[in-house]
Each structure stands twice: as structure tokens, then as C-alpha cells.
Design a protein that fits this description.
The chain is an alpha+beta fold. It contains three helices and seven strands, in the order βββαβααβββ.
Length: 143
């Protein structure tokens, strides 16, 4: 299932796609987003995306989040929904001399994001990211 979400913000036009993959993909949910440049709007958009995360379902949030990893780590709703910012994130902007880490792939507690790397430049001012994404089995529950 694919759902388009209009993201909150003072300037209309930002959106996110939610892609729910079936059981053959482990029930993985993908949230693809391109967030605003402004701090206030981006904060609201991260709140909105965090509310979409089902803690029982493995989820990956990816895209141009237009902020450095420390901003994401400090966002209460984002960490509260279980999405984790990888320890190491490559610089992706600008593509001709990357110095800022604005593009991200975050995984929920059910997902491990490994081998995160920037790809060679193509036709964008950002470098694309690639990662290996692994499903993590839920912990055993005590009887």
C-alpha cells in the first residue's frame, strides 16, 4: 500500500510517501520524505512523521531531511517513536564537495541500518545514500 502525506508547514508542497510492504518483505514500512529548510517547519514535519511510525512494525525513514544528525538525535518525538540515527553518516551536500550530512536513512528498533555510504554524484545537488537494511528479530518475551 502507498499513501501520500501532505506535511505540515507554512509553505505548502512538502510531502512524504508511506510504503507498506507485505509479509514477504517482513511487513516493512518505508517513509520517504523531503523536509523543509526552515527549523520550525522541519520540526513539525518530524513530529508528523514520528506519529506515523507503528512501534510494532519495522520502519525505515529515508530522504533529504535537511538537517544534521545531531538535530535528529535531539528531536524528542523522533527518538520516542523508536527511529534510530546511525552513528556514522556520510556527507551528502553539496554533491560536488560534500561537507554537510543532510540525507539520512533511519531504522526503527526492528531494523538495523548498516554499511551506510554516499554514492558517486549523478544529476543532483545531493549525493544519494545506500545502505544495507536488516530485519532484527524482536526480543523473546518472558512468560
Amino acid at each position: 500500500a502507498v499513501t501520500k502525506h501532505r506535511l505540515p508547514g507554512r509553505i505548502p508542497g512538502r510531502s512524504a510517501l508511506e510504503v507498506e510492504l507485505g509479509p514477504e518483505a517482513g511487513g516493512l514500512s518505508l517513509l520517504l520524505a523531503h523536509l523543509s529548510l526552515g527549523h520550525f517547519d522541519r520540526h513539525q514535519q518530524l513530529d508528523y512523521l514520528s506519529a506515523l511510525v507503528n512501534k510494532e512494525r519495522p520502519t525505515v525513514l529515508l530522504g533529504d531531511l535537511n538537517c544534521e544528525p545531531d538535530i535528529l538525535r535531539a528531536h524528542a518525538a523522533l527518538s520516542g517513536c523508536g527511529l534510530c540515527v546511525p552513528e556514522q553518516s556520510p556527507a551528502t551536500f553539496p554533491s560536488w564537495r560534500p561537507s554537510r550530512r543532510l540525507d539520512h536513512i533511519l531504522g526503527s528498533g526492528h531494523v538495523a541500518v548498516r554499511t551506510l555510504r554516499a554514492l558517486p554524484p549523478l544529476l543532483s545537488d545531493h549525493l544519494a545514500l545506500a545502505a544495507e537494511v536488516f530485519m532484527v528479530p524482536p526480543p523473546e518475551r518472558a512468560a
